[in-house]
Amino acid sequence: MGVWTEGRRRSSLAGTMSQQFSQTSTSSNPMPDGQTSGGRPRRVAVVLFNLGGPDAPEAVRPFLFNLFADPAIIRLPNPFRFLIASLISGRRAKPAAAIYAQIGGKSPLLENTEAQAAALEGVLEADPAAGAESKVFIAMRYWHPMSAETAARVKAYDPDLVVLLPLYPQFSTTTTASSAKAWHEAARTVGLTVPTKLLCCYPTQAGFIDATADLIRPLYEAARAHGRPRVLFSAHGLPKKVVASGDPYQWQCERTAESIAAALGIDDLDWINCYQSRVGPMEWIGPSTDAEIRRAGQDGVPILVVPMAFVSEHSETLVEIEIEYRHLAREAGVPHFTRVPTAGVHPGFIDGMAKLVRQTVAGKAAVCSQKGDRICPSNFSGCPQAGR
After folding, report:
1. pLDDT confidence tier of residue 280, bands split at 50, 70 and 90
2. Can you tell me the distance from the alpha carbon of 202 to that of 353, in angstroms, rounded to the nearest whole number?
């Protein structure tokens, strides 16, 4: 089981986020001195958003406190949220430490994200047509380097434009919106006032989809020796009430699964999208990944678990999927189990991220999706472009 737990905040975060970024869009700010006469920036800071994770055993409890102190996770005002965060982090510190002990006592998320940042910066800098110097930064939500630290570094870099790129392909009010809100507050605190744009989501971006399909294909072929494989596209779950309040996460996850399945080009592919990491008494979206593993055991089919909402390895992939779900599959009688790696630094994925950065820089909107404008159906009020 992953360490991300409890309930999530309503879609009002998305509306707040949209207002915040409309205040810092290029259309509402004068052209900085560092921009070209055509309005293109000469220096761009790209900020990668990610969850963060403890970097040592003693960091587990404060990491958990930061997680549960987020109003997007515990939807109560202070001092109640502070008290509950203290209680839960104290109670969960020991089992969470045991999870991280299985992967070296700390999260590998920062190192993985640093590798992605370096790869992305290399691709951006290698493009002479871009016409702008680019530097990639990392802002973690719940452990270092957090937004306050990174915003100060970005200000010292003195960019003409900041592009916020979440390493969450599918938008949620509980991840991207929460990170964007934290960034906005940190930027205001350090006096970072340059135009800022947010790439809110890319659930079916070609580079992301093709890279994931590329990672699946050889593992699928190997699994065929054990029968007709079933592909489980697994994403982190959400309580149903969050989705019912207008959060587009589940809808976007479904589009991701459909797109990867189509990209694989396998006739009559057996696949399903499902959700992991469910905890607590609330009803969560489904089907659950563990239930689908048990069903595969009943059907006697080999399975591949694809972490379609994660692009960097961390506890949910390396422990929950690789260790806990592998054990469950063995108990359930699944003849063959495979965990597909995350997109990581796959060249196709990194190239896709670079294209998204260039597209965001060239666009006029302060909040844009993989195709610029809104991709979510109108009934999702939690979409950050709900007002467009």
Report:
1. confident
2. 9
Coil, helix or strand at residue 48: strand
Residue 262 CB contacts under 8 Å (≥ 6 apart), including other chains: none
In terms of Cβ atoms closer than 10 Å to its own Cβ (0-12, 13-18, 19+), residue 23 is middle
236: tokens are 């982190």
Report, in angstroms and rounded to the nearest whole number, the Rg of the chain calculated over CA atoms: 20
Cα separations (Å) of 67 from 30, 63, 81, 91?
A: 37, 6, 11, 14
What residue spans of 53-175 are helical by DSSP H? Answer: 60-68, 80-101, 109-125, 147-157
Alpha-carbon distance 170 to 201, whole Å?
5
Structure tokens at 277: 């990491």
* Residue 221 CB neighbour total at 10 angstroms: 11
DSSP codes of every residue in 207-255: HHHHHHHHHHHHHHHHHGGGSS-EEEEEEE--BHHHHHTT--HHHHHHH
State residue 265 phi and psi, 5-degree precision.
65, 30
How confident is the model over 26-44, as pLDDT tens digits? 333 433 444 544 568 999 9
DSSP labels, 50-71: E----SSGGGHHHHHHHHHTST
Query: 3-class DSSP state for residue 267?
Result: coil
